[in-house]
Amino acid sequence: MSFLTRIVGKSTSFSGIRLMSVYPQHYVEPIVQKDKQIEQKDELTKLHHIPIKAALNKSSDTVFHDDTKEKLLNYITKKGNSALARTLLSKAFELIKRTQTERLNLAKGDKDKVITNAEVLLKQAVENCRPLLQVTAIKRGGVTYQVPVPITTKRSYFLAMKWLLEAAREKERKVSLPEKLAWEILDAAHGQGRVVKRKDDLHRQCEANRAYAHYRWS
Amino acid sequence: MKMIRNRLAVQLQRHVLQMSMSTNAAAAAAPAEGAAISEFRTAVTNPGEHSALQVAKFYTIPAEQKKQIFAGGGLPKQYEQQIKTFTEACLMVRNPALEVLEYIKKADLSKPVVRYLLYGENGTGKTLTMAHVLHYGALNDFLLVHVPWAPNWMKRPKEASNAAGQEGMIDLPFDAAAWLVHFKGQNSKLLQRLELKTSKEYVWSKRESTPAGSTLLELVEHGIARIKYASETTAALISELKLLSTAGKCKVMVAIDGYNAFFHPVTRIFSDNKQRVTPDKITLTHPFLNITRYDWTNGVCILSVDKIAMTEGHMDSYMPRYLLGTEGFEHLDPFVPIHVENYSDKEFHSYISYYLDRHWINKTPQGFEEQLKFMSNKNPYALMQLVRAL
Amino acid sequence: MANSLTRFWGQGSLQKHVVQTGLRGFSSQQNPEVEEEEEFRVLSLRTVKQQFQKRREVKKDPVTPPRSNRMAVDQDWTAAWPGPRSFHPASVPLPLRQGFTERGAAAPSKFANAELMKIPNFLHLTPPAIRQQCEALKKFCTPWPKGLETEAKWQRHFPVEVITTDYLQALPTIRNPEARRVTVSLKLSDLKFDAHARDKFLRLVGDRYDKDTDILTFVTDRCPLRKQNYDYALYLLTACYHESFVTEPWEATKSEADMEVYLFGRNKSKLSAEEILNWNAAEGAPKVEPSPSYGQSVEQLINEGENEYNLTKYKEEVKKMLNIASQ
């Protein structure tokens, strides 16, 4: 385990500065959410003379907006049909909520344990599915080795969502995507299911191939 | 790695806690079961006792009554789903239903039947208004003649065959039998108690007949058992009901949802020569047109006209005369039109509170109610669609 | 002539001869002068100033100050400007300005201002001028008829308006083809109709009737003379009016589908309402009729089209008729 922690420590040192950004470095990120603006009112007054980046096109302050959700939406979308993706995802959320709400309403006592918020469940599922390492093929002396390498945070989120979606798409024809996606998210949120297993498998492989780790740099 | 995991877990927990706190705060008004009733609920479960005091409040239909009345349909599919999710059958007391109930309560039943016509935009709650009134009827010894969604017969019949006796007519035996089952389910207790008898003998074929003086239950059961004669049985049953109620032996409540389907220019049923037939060529249409005439007493008719009962090209307006057409208007006139509108502010707020109480809305940032109000235009169905992923 | 001659002198000798012969041809007056010169020819290599004849000065009359300066304040304007005339700056004692300038500059004054001259003016039609002319004409007029003092009165007594136009023109003929046109117009409300006749009349006259103003207009120009056209217009009016009261036998077969408007009286709605109202009535008891306001509400609902207002009205009427408790 100590080996993994060490590598993870290195991976976090990747800086988030984008060198090719349109904005100079002294520009600050905008705050779109109104409640956050009110919350940080005192701090924001300090920003009076500091230039602020323009808000992103997709950012929004509605109840319907959530960053993880929007990201997953982008991954679900096929051929630019994001309207369809949105309906699919909201159907999946509805199913998750139905299952959880029914469970909650039928539960005798200890109702706080059941989470009915589908977005929270999705976040939990994604966190549970995030890998810390991945293996990459490196050829040394005519032999290809599967070498464990650290991955960035961003990529780990991407992989988690990609795996969730792949698991959801691998289904019978009669089962709809929202249905399967809802199952997978619920399973993953509880730390079970195929996606979590996939992550654990990857970790196990990395652990097994730890001896090849030095091929990364030598 | 453990540390990171722990940090994440803590963050997550905090997040979840926050969420649950907010929902708890919202649901704080809703106490645990058995305690004082919350603001948006009413303990009055008898629709007969509902008055303006209960407007915009939810009342619960007891499970066995719900099963008796709505087992064969009568609630929209998505509402049924919601009932299952929320593990309780709640209906909001709204003005249109109260209006109809008041008319019915004060009506002089010795006068010819009054037809009440619910109309309104898509998704404003016509069917649920009807459900509320049906609940009243079931509790007040009305025999229910209830068609959950008439366009089903014109748009997607289970089977269509040529009627035996009448030239050029189309029978829908399975649908008729299904309706008889629905009728029996709703009224079997009342029928047993009232012991209504047929007035004349019905001869179905050379061997089969229902003698005069047999009970209506026998008639219905015959129709269910011999599906071939289900349509004729329906016609016989309905004419018997008219006679009996005119004679004062029972009270009848007719509730037909999507009534304008009976006057639609065409159906999706094809005749032998591969032509679409008109609704009046379907045997099942006539008994229900018959019972919505004014020539009988001791009953009420609650009908609804709906845009989605029509097909493409006939859905421009939700107004009753447009949807009924000239013929339908003449058939119904004089009727009492009742407009079912979108939620009022009070009703909207009450519905949001209910959703929060049932943990259906989990995100409650500042001003979310305003956002939902704006997005849905206070339309019940639109609201239901919007909150499904919240 | 003298001028042209001197100009010719200035030029080379080559041309001179030609000029002389040319001159001889058409001007015998100049002959002695020419001959005089031939006596002694001085060689002059340069043009000498004395040879130029002095140009005659054009005598211009001094510009008199504008007449308007001398005009008295209380002068008789009708005498100063008696008839229609294009604008003349000196005659009009008004500080007029007209025309386009660059921004900020004042508009050109009235002197030598074509803008002012182009536009028609009505300086001869001042109120005193008109009053004067009316006074002059008065002795030829008859008094205004009694009883027609107000517009309402004369419109009641003379509902038909006849419009003809006379033309004055500068052509070899004094006749203008447009002069024969006669326009006869009247308000339809001045004619008395029953429902059928009115409907038929409107169909007969077609687009000659304007629904918004309720005015019926006949324009006739098919006959060569004005008199004939006038007679024809009145004939049309009379014929249409009387024809509209004729009911043809086939009109009785008009079915509901041919109706232009929904009439409560001839529809099933009335029968239904009657039957409901007379439900269980004793034999021979007086029949209860549905109230006219109910009929009106149905007609309104169908003829005007459905809207919330009409439907609510219909609902109220139905509730009143069926004795349904109002909320």
From TrEMBL, chain A:
<feature type="domain" description="Small ribosomal subunit protein uS7">
    <location>
        <begin position="59"/>
        <end position="210"/>
    </location>
</feature>
<dbReference type="GO" id="GO:0005840">
    <property type="term" value="C:ribosome"/>
</dbReference>
<dbReference type="GO" id="GO:1990904">
    <property type="term" value="C:ribonucleoprotein complex"/>
</dbReference>
<dbReference type="InterPro" id="IPR023798">
    <property type="entry name" value="Ribosomal_uS7_dom"/>
</dbReference>
<protein>
    <recommendedName>
        <fullName>Small ribosomal subunit protein uS7 domain-containing protein</fullName>
    </recommendedName>
</protein>
<dbReference type="Pfam" id="PF00177">
    <property type="entry name" value="Ribosomal_S7"/>
</dbReference>
<dbReference type="InterPro" id="IPR036823">
    <property type="entry name" value="Ribosomal_uS7_dom_sf"/>
</dbReference>
<keyword id="KW-0689">Ribosomal protein</keyword>
<dbReference type="InterPro" id="IPR000235">
    <property type="entry name" value="Ribosomal_uS7"/>
</dbReference>
<dbReference type="GO" id="GO:0006412">
    <property type="term" value="P:translation"/>
</dbReference>
<comment type="similarity">
    <text>Belongs to the universal ribosomal protein uS7 family.</text>
</comment>
<keyword id="KW-0687">Ribonucleoprotein</keyword>
UniProtKB/TrEMBL annotation, chain B:
<comment type="similarity">
    <text>Belongs to the mitochondrion-specific ribosomal protein mS29 family.</text>
</comment>
<dbReference type="GO" id="GO:0006915">
    <property type="term" value="P:apoptotic process"/>
</dbReference>
<dbReference type="Pfam" id="PF10236">
    <property type="entry name" value="DAP3"/>
</dbReference>
<protein>
    <recommendedName>
        <fullName>Small ribosomal subunit protein mS29</fullName>
    </recommendedName>
</protein>
<dbReference type="GO" id="GO:0003735">
    <property type="term" value="F:structural constituent of ribosome"/>
</dbReference>
<dbReference type="InterPro" id="IPR019368">
    <property type="entry name" value="Ribosomal_mS29"/>
</dbReference>
<keyword id="KW-0809">Transit peptide</keyword>
<keyword id="KW-0689">Ribosomal protein</keyword>
<keyword id="KW-0496">Mitochondrion</keyword>
<dbReference type="InterPro" id="IPR027417">
    <property type="entry name" value="P-loop_NTPase"/>
</dbReference>
<dbReference type="InterPro" id="IPR008092">
    <property type="entry name" value="Ribosomal_mS29_met"/>
</dbReference>
<dbReference type="GO" id="GO:0005763">
    <property type="term" value="C:mitochondrial small ribosomal subunit"/>
</dbReference>
<keyword id="KW-0687">Ribonucleoprotein</keyword>
TrEMBL record, chain C:
<dbReference type="InterPro" id="IPR039848">
    <property type="entry name" value="Ribosomal_mS35_mt"/>
</dbReference>
<dbReference type="Pfam" id="PF10213">
    <property type="entry name" value="MRP-S28"/>
</dbReference>
<feature type="domain" description="Small ribosomal subunit protein mS35 mitochondrial conserved">
    <location>
        <begin position="175"/>
        <end position="244"/>
    </location>
</feature>
<dbReference type="InterPro" id="IPR019349">
    <property type="entry name" value="Ribosomal_mS35_mit"/>
</dbReference>
<dbReference type="GO" id="GO:0032543">
    <property type="term" value="P:mitochondrial translation"/>
</dbReference>
<dbReference type="GO" id="GO:0003735">
    <property type="term" value="F:structural constituent of ribosome"/>
</dbReference>
<protein>
    <recommendedName>
        <fullName>Small ribosomal subunit protein mS35 mitochondrial conserved domain-containing protein</fullName>
    </recommendedName>
</protein>
<dbReference type="GO" id="GO:0005763">
    <property type="term" value="C:mitochondrial small ribosomal subunit"/>
</dbReference>
